[in-house]
Amino acid sequence: MHNLQGKAEELYHLIKDDPIVSPHGHCDPSWFAKDTPFANAAELLVIPDHYVFRMLYSQGIPLANLGVGEPGKAADPREVFRLFAKNWHLFLGTPSRVWVDYVLHNTLGISSTLSTETSDTIYDQIGDLLAQEDHRPRFLFDRFNIELLATTDSALDVLKDHVAIAKSDWGGRVIPTFRPDGILDGNDPEFLANLASLGEKTGQNVDSFSGYLSAIRARRAHFIANGATATDHGIEHVMTEWLSNPDEVYQRLRLGQANDGDAVRFYGHMLIEMAQMSCDDGLVMQIHAGSRRNTNRDVMTAFGRDKGADIPIGIDWVKGLDALLNRVGNDTELRILLFTLDETTYARELAPMAGHWPCLRIGPPWWFHDSPAGIARYFDQVVETAGYYNLAGFNDDTRAFLSIPARHDVWRQGVALHLSEQVSKGYFDMTDATKLAGLLATDLARKAYKLET
User: What pTM was computed for the model?
Assistant: First the structure.
């Protein structure tokens, strides 16, 4: 056991200070365009983090008391942080505890342990730090050694913040990601309004299906011109189907005359159209599947979408991607990265699929499974069949900017532990493990997202 720890420590120290490649996440690009100070500890660590407020809500703490709500109606941020500190024990055993501890002690240099007694002192210490030039977003971006950070942006976004970043004299690389769900999903309440906006922004006549496709291509081109290398789809069930009459289904959706199942079948067709467009323009395609969104209707009504009531469900990847893969899956230039909340599919479906189809790569543990134990389970289930080179490396997928180094550190520790175990079992030696450590820390993400320079 001591030898295993020694190997893991050696591998970890080789990669712990490597640049951070963050090719998928949800940070706000305006932070880096405007470079204004973060407001306070609550808005930094509690309010934007659904991992944090869902745990507190599960223990009966109202979301409104945690600052989750309409701007201007949130609770006092100091009170929010006090409530968080008072209930800090609830996070024992969770990755949130690991991440926030890292942020407090490693990133912010706070020496005190978070508690009811220290809450106000730590709140004020963080406030003092955030007021300093060396804790503004751009400075922290550079200090964190972030090589690249990708945001996730609506297909209709004009990308003004990305344009501002590119025109500034700051050297940080922040790129957009094309998220087209709002213009593909006929079940989205804003679908018709989004279609109208799509036509206006592109000058295309979206009354016809061909014009609609041309408008989407134009938006993709706009994103590429502003640095994008990837698209992203957040879907509940995986279903692809090549429709012989997509225009007919599109017209029913556009005119509000859809039949049952039209929206699902149309989205299934459009996933294939998106993959075909990626074959043409080179954008990497990400599919995040297996989350039933907004299951708490009262929370949805009162606070809107994405407030912690999203729950994993089972996924059939083989059947769901059959139509797409048998149309474009043999294209060696196409990249499709698959993310799941259904861990039962790792060994049964995803690893064998990625171990065959040239276009597929398996994304890292996502959401509920982005944890030390989840990382260990992931490697244990996928490597034997998919190998390492069919993985997509790591991305942090976070809205909480200060947690990015913490999340990458947890991943790198997991990589070191996994590789040291492989060496101890005699599967390969430390020379191979060293090479794989660098790949898993940064290089596989660069390759998967076509970020090599």
Answer: 0.95
Residue 232: is it exposed, middle or buried by C-beta count within 10 angstroms (0-12/13-18/19+)? buried
* Residue-averaged pLDDT of the chain: 95
The CATH class, in words, for 2-37+137-448 is alpha beta
**3-state secondary structure (DSSP) of residue 235:** strand
Distance from C-alpha of 155 to C-alpha of 141, rounded to nearest angstrom: 25
What DSSP string runs through 393-444?
Answer: ------S-GGGHHHHHHHHHHHHHHHHHHHHHTTSS-HHHHHHHHHIIIIIH
Average pLDDT over residues 146-172: 98
Which part of the chain has CATH 3.20.20.140?
2-37+137-448
Protein fold of 38-135 = uronate isomerase, domain 2, chain A (1.10.2020)
Give per-residue pLDDT as tens, 256-298. 999 999 999 999 999 999 999 999 999 999 999 999 988 999 8
Please, where are the H alpha helices in 228-362? 246-254, 262-281, 297-303, 317-320, 322-328, 345, 351-354
pLDDT above 70 for 328 = yes
Q: List own/partner pairs for 299-307 with CB under 8 A and 24 or more apart.
A: 299/57, 299/63, 302/63, 302/69, 303/63, 303/68, 303/69, 306/50, 307/50, 307/53, 307/54, 307/63, 307/68
pLDDT tens across 2-36, in order? 455 899 999 999 999 999 999 999 999 999 999 99
Single-letter residue type at 211: G
